[in-house]
Sequence to fold (238 residues):
Amino acid sequence: MTAGEMAAGGDPGTVLVTGGASGLGAAVVSAVREAGGTAVVLDIAPPSAAPAGTDYRQVDLADTAAAGAAVKRVTERHRLDGVVAAAGIDESGPLAQVPAPAWERVVAVNLLGTAAVVRAALPCLEATGGRVVTVASTLGFRVFPDATAYCASKFGLVGFTRALAVETAGRVGVTLLVPGGMDTAFFDARPEQYKPGPDAKLNHPRDVADAVLFALRQPRGCEVRELVITPSVEPSWP
Fold:
């Protein structure tokens, strides 16, 4: 059974997860495996908590040529049913104070790296009737100060995903996931003024991963085009 023919609630098949070593990506890897599927991880760091036998390919997604080559190597070994582009980074601070290479790396990883991975995976996904889930953010629709790199990358990802959905309609399923704040290590390296406050209500990545699994399991012809999942008191939505 291909991913496109799968009944909702079934085995998600083989799913490539970028950023699968930590945070939401790691939660998606666990959710896929618990549902009977196979997860393949692309990340710059090895997955410390992944089950034994998880196929892992080290790659810096800011290097789009390397990202595309890594995906091609994966498709030589695996018949992909899905891609979840969960990798994401941030560099907080006023535009004039964030070094240009750091600013540009955010856009390279979050937007250009995602596009490179999806581009390389498309032939395989078209063959299986598979699905793509991109991970944007509520800051792909709203803006905060000192977040120009992140907002630029996520606004771009929203446009990329919507255009991809139209371009591949009927051949590949495409879902734009829009998560709010999650309780992950994403905020750990930020200066204190850019971290969630001590009373912040954040979603557990496991719950957001369940939403990803829901999108991956839809039967062919049924599309979850955009899926917003936030804490009930999310300050950046709507």
